[in-house]
Specification:
The chain is globular and about 70 Å long. The chain folds into two domains: about 60 residues, 2-Layer Sandwich (Phosphorylase Kinase, domain 1), CATH 3.30.200; about 250 residues, Aminoglycoside 3'-phosphotransferase, Chain: A, domain 2 (Alpha-Beta Complex). Strands 1-2-3-5-4 form a five-stranded antiparallel β-sheet, covered by helices on one side. A three-stranded antiparallel β-sheet has the order 6-8-9, with helices on one face. With about 350 residues, it is of the alpha+beta class. β8 and β9 form a beta hairpin. α2 runs parallel beside α7. It is about 40% helix and about 15% strand.
Length: about 350
């Protein structure tokens, strides 16, 4: 038994879905002096399948993509600790970071084609199809709760729900083929600053709670959007939106060319036509990111105590506003191009 004075526990600020602690043991006798103790957030089964999430984590740990797993129970697990710092939002557009994240995503998206990828992690539907239904239904129920009813009514509950059918068709219409953005691959699904660690040996992706099979364009779209949102902000509403930080068209094309070079195994340049096709798909999936994280935020509002912390409802309102603005701009660009699809870089 380790003396209590040798053990230090620190609650970590990062993490919107779980409560995380760093546990250190000051003793040369232990082989693992530091671990991450993760306590699962309450009510998370509404948002993802906890059994599937744990199977996914074990698989990724085996592939040395996720941290090693040391112990677990129904409500917690103990993981490998990485000496690292979260990737700050201000660094997400750094060309070195863009290249590393793009290459890592390209490699991650290929693991579902491996012969030893677990069959039970394959899915009949991409995640966004299922989540538009399930998260939307949960959002609809929670929107009537007294705590959120007034704010939800101002957002327009029925309008948000009605977008699901149109959006599901819009994001998949048009061009298809390998590397077009519609390949269904194993996706991280929550690629934002807190889930990318800077370590002495390069970037590491963490927190795969929401991972599963998804169209490849979603991860890239979500990353571009997250470049504009700083969650390490210490003033109300405890996040900061900076639309000027959205990657420029040239940065987006660079990212996509690196990603496709890794994913396809051939050299792809930013000016290549395949990048234009892929980027068009990415732009469409920005709408999926905005709408689903708006639903998610309202659901989290109902789950979290009123303690003056992160304002999930404020975040939901922001993501819905961004959805409407992005949709209007995208459809206007398509009308001007005189086509149902095409290069519609969002900027």
């Amino acid at each position: 038994m380790q003396p209590m004075q040798d053990i230090t526990v620190k609650k970590l600020d990062s993490g919107l879905s779980n409560i995380n602690y760093r546990v250190r043991i000051a003793s040369p006798a232990v082989s693992v002096p530091c671990v991450l103790f993760r306590v699962y957030g309450k009510g998370m089964t509404i948002l993802f399948d906890s059994t599937m999430e744990f199977q996914t984590f074990k698989m990724l740990s085996k592939f040395q993509i996720a941290p090693r797993l040391y112990a677990s129970d129904d409500d917690w697990r103990i993981e490998e600790w990485h000496d690292s710092i979260p990737l700050p939002t201000r660094s997400m557009r750094n060309p070195s970071i863009l290249a590393q994240v793009a290459a890592q995503l390209g490699r991650l998206h290929k693991i579902s084609s491996k012969s030893d990828f677990p069959a039970e992690l394959q899915a009949e539907q991409p995640l966004h199809v299922m989540r538009l239904e399930r998260w939307g239904d949960a959002f609809s129920q929670i929107a009537g709760h007294p705590r959120v009813a007034n704010s939800a009514a101002r957002m327009g509950v029925q309008e948000m729900l009605a977008e699901r059918e149109w959006l599901a068709k819009f994001v998949v219409e048009g061009s298809s083929g390998t590397g077009s953005g519609l390949d269904v691959v194993f996706s991280h699904w929550d690629l934002q600053e807190n889930n990318v660690l800077q370590t002495p040996y390069g970037l590491r992706l963490i927190d795969f709670e929401y991972s599963g099979m998804e169209h490849q364009a979603f991860d890239i779209a979500n990353y571009f959007v997250e470049c504009t949102i700083d969650y390490l902000h210490d003033e109300y509403p405890y996040y900061k939106l900076g639309l000027h930080n959205l990657p420029t068209e040239s940065e987006q094309r660079f990212f996509c060319s690196v990603y496709l070079s890794e994913y396809l195994g051939v050299a792809v340049k930013p000016e290549d036509a395949v990048v234009s096709v892929f980027l068009d798909r990415v732009q469409r999936f920005t709408l999926v990111s905005h709408l689903l994280w708006a639903f998610w935020s309202v659901i989290k509002t109902h789950q979290q105590p009123v303690d003056g912390g992160f304002d999930y409802l404020h975040c939901a309102q922001t993501r819905w506003l961004l959805y409407r603005q992005s949709k209007d701009a995208m459809l206007q660009a398509l009308r001007e191009a005189g086509q149902g699809q095409g290069s519609t870089t969002w900027h």
